[in-house]
Write a structure and sequence with these properties.
Rossmann fold; 2 domains
């Protein structure tokens, strides 16, 4: 959702009068996040599929089949000049309908290893935008490296961001969050390590709604001298920009957006790939780690002891600075604008400017 909205904003920046629409699946979160920003249309297919064996194992293929004629009817009514999708199962009926109607399409793949649905959609799409150079091999002849469309950090200074969060210039800030994937493992390690962590770091911890009771209990158990150095929140929306810019070290999952944002900001990170997403996040984290831009720890290996060991090593400003510099060198903060330019070129029948 967020990469798609970033591209929509880049399109409007490039062409203020452009008419845009958002097509979502059966997932209440989408409509709430898109809000009034774009006209919203919904297909019967679910945006995300379940990993387990449940009723949806039977219903999802039926919803997918029903979504193909629904998508065709929607595109016939809207008559778009181009289609952009962030892949997944929602992209299948849309790209199929667009191909049948001769509407050019761009699909974006944010992981080093493409998912099965995006591989299928990518074969049908006009062009494929990818976040990581190794992914080009999966889509020969039609892919280009765009990077990951992310929120804008323009105009956000470190001094102002730290002041907004109450972080003094001489303090080190550890930002811990799990993205949209389960945060229990990360939170457990942080909770157990907190008394030692807070001796050297101020900690901003995003725990999700379900994690707030535990976070509040842990905070109450801390020595009074350390309590004000720990701040737990369920999540951050606009404040996440300040948090990333202000941070000296990030502990998080290895989703495409997290990888792109730590690079765009130029901050050292400890990435703990979500273990139940195939090899996607492991490959993302490994690619950054191989470039010296992050430290990778497997989910099974993350506990308080390992966290303290690595965070203590990264207390060294020079070591952390080298990692941050390597991350900054991989940044593609103009990803949304690159994809927007490709979409505009395709919609107008011009030669595309993005190169593989």
């Amino acid at each position: 959702m967020y990469p798609a909205l970033a591209v929509a904003r880049a399109l409007r920046d490039a062409r203020p009068g452009l008419e845009l629409s958002y097509v979502g699946g059966v997932r209440g979160l989408e409509r709430r996040i898109v809000g009034d920003e774009l006209p919203y249309h919904q297909l019967v297919v679910r945006s995300l599929r379940s990993g387990g064996r449940d009723v949806h194992l039977v219903l999802d293929p039926l919803r997918l089949a029903a979504s193909v004629p629904q998508a065709a009817a929607l595109l016939a009514r809207l008559r778009p000049s181009a289609l952009f999708t962030t892949g997944g199962y929602l992209g299948i009926p849309l790209v199929l309908a667009a191909r049948a109607a001769r509407i050019p399409s761009v699909v974006w793949e944010g992981n080093v290893i493409p998912g099965r649905a995006t591989r299928a959609v990518g074969r049908l799409a006009t062009r494929v935008a990818v976040s990581f150079p190794p992914t080009l091999e999966a889509f020969p002849g039609k892919a280009f490296v765009s990077g990951t469309p992310i929120r804008s950090f323009a105009g956000v200074t470190r001094d102002k961001a730290r002041a907004n969060l109450g972080v003094a210039p001489d303090e080190r800030l550890l930002l811990a969050f799990g993205g949209s994937q389960a945060v229990a493992r990360l939170s457990a390690a942080v909770f157990a390590a907190l008394p030692q962590l807070l001796e050297d770091w101020r900690v901003l911890h995003l725990v999700g709604e379900a994690g707030m009771p535990d976070a509040q209990a842990v905070a109450a158990s801390l020595p009074r001298t350390l309590r004000d150095r720990y701040r737990a929140l369920p999540f951050l929306t606009d404040g996440m920009t300040d948090a990333l810019v202000a941070a000296d070290l990030v502990l998080g999952r290895a989703g495409s957006s997290t990888c792109a944002e730590v690079a765009a900001v130029g901050v050292a990170s400890i990435l703990v790939p979500y273990p139940f997403a195939g090899a996607h996040q492991r490959a993302n984290a490994a690619w950054l780690a191989d470039q010296g831009a992050a430290l990778q720890i497997s989910d099974a290996e993350l506990d308080a002891s390992r966290l303290l060991t690595e965070v203590t090593r990264l207390r060294d400003d020079e070591r952390r600075g080298a990692m941050a510099s390597a991350a900054r060198g991989l940044a593609r903060p103009d990803a949304a604008a690159r994809i927007a330019a490709e979409l505009l070129a395709l919609s107008e029948g011009r030669a595309t400017g993005a190169m593989a």
